[in-house]
Amino acid sequence: MSAARTLLRGGRVIDPAGGFDGVADVLVTGDRITAVGAVPAPEPGTTVVDVAGLVVGPGFVDLHSHAQSIAGLRLQAMDGVTTALELEAGLMPLARAYAEAAAAGRPVNYGFSASWGAARASVLAGVEPDARVQTTMAALGDPRWQRSSSPPELAAWLSLLDDELAAGALGIGVLMGYAPYSAPSEFLAVARLAANAGVPAYTHVRELAEVDPAIPVDGAAELALAAAETGAAMHHCHVNSTSGRHLERVLGTLDASRREGSRVTVEAYPYGAGSTAVGAAFLDPERLRLKGLGPASVVMLESGERVADESRLRELRRADPGAACVLEFLDERVAADRALLHAALAFPGAIVASDAMPVTWPGGVRESTDWPLPPGGSTHPRTAGTFARALRVMVRETGTWTWLEAFRRCSHLPARVLDDVAPAVRHKGRLGVGADADLVVLDPETITDAATFADPTRPSAGVRHLYVAGVPVVADGELRSDVLPGRPVRGEPR
């Protein structure tokens, strides 16, 4: 049987790899792009889609998505994402995570890093890893694994990580911000492991010195130092949320590290509120005070409760440390805070990544294959709206990015982070002959986020078509619930 053919006719084609921005046709044959330019007479049986007036580019590659379910990834597909990877936290055991995703199917491509948090929790606290995002979230508030390791313990969990890398993990996900007083030597050991394996480390850094003078090492400086000392590729996750009002200094630290030759990349999302487990170390009432925040900056995700005082916050942390909450670290109503969010996205080479959160429903329901999603779903609005919001703000409203630059930040640069660990990714984030047929077609005049904290599962608007491995997942602005063409993205086994 011959491969299916689709011709996208007459769109504004963006290839961030080759710097092309112009009107052209794009021919897809099977799962690859086979022609870009004028295709005057397509072969019989070719599906022709008129995309005149629309922007055609490589689908967005999200390096930081915890929304690893059919429901969550469908929201991301409506936001233009064709590849959504769980790299900051990772999952363990890796083989089970990939097997379960493949068995259930996924609407977009998926992949995982080796989980530093799960490895440490297994060795230091006896928490059995089960390849679920929810288990990782629940363990974040467990103080038993937040301490420093003894030499035998360090060797044990480093060995677990090494085994996961050998099995094809996409690097090491390091939740250092959840064990902020652990020994800095341990972080260097992880960076050396990453460097020796030729894989990136994706880090949620520990606190900044401005926020907590008692911290063993400044989080941004630690990442830069590890990159310089080991040669590892170090990726700084969500620089906006971990830097807050100290963003300028942090970006300066990272920029200096890059200019000195270190392999440092950085990501950001366009929201002033983050989401995590209420038991996270940095939500301790005293630590919130160090950040200039208070209990009222914390909102429980499922109930919508805004925490009234420190006593209530401590109660919530004791009762269910894994419960999801929102932390308002910047006030988007304030011009100076909005400028900080803009600066994070405008930083040269900054990658857009969502930090998408799992979607849940009352009663602990964590998956739905229905579309539209059932009402009452709870998540952070960035799950549904990160990329459309970034395009709206940075291209349409402020003109900070051209469309070529937007696709560089959302597609090309994130894919390049993975080139060394997963050579198959070299065909993503590009729109040229031979590239993977992971494509987004969007309306440049209407692309926008629609999700809010009151209604967080409203899909973005303006994504007209989305193709994953050549299969239409979104057609004429409507998600197709009858297809799950997502493929695994894996590192090369060692």
UniProtKB/TrEMBL annotation:
Q: Where is the Amidohydrolase domain?
A: 48-474
Molecular function per GO: hydrolase activity, acting on carbon-nitrogen (but not peptide) bonds, in linear amides
Which InterPro entries does the entry mention?
Answer: Amidohydro_3, D-aminoacylase_insert_dom_sf, Metal-dep_hydrolase_composite, Metal_Hydrolase, Metallo-dep_Hydrolases_sf
- Record's superkingdom? Bacteria
- Name-wise, this protein is D-glutamate deacylase
Originating organism? Amycolatopsis eburnea
Q: What is the lineage of its organism?
A: Bacteria, Bacillati, Actinomycetota, Actinomycetes, Pseudonocardiales
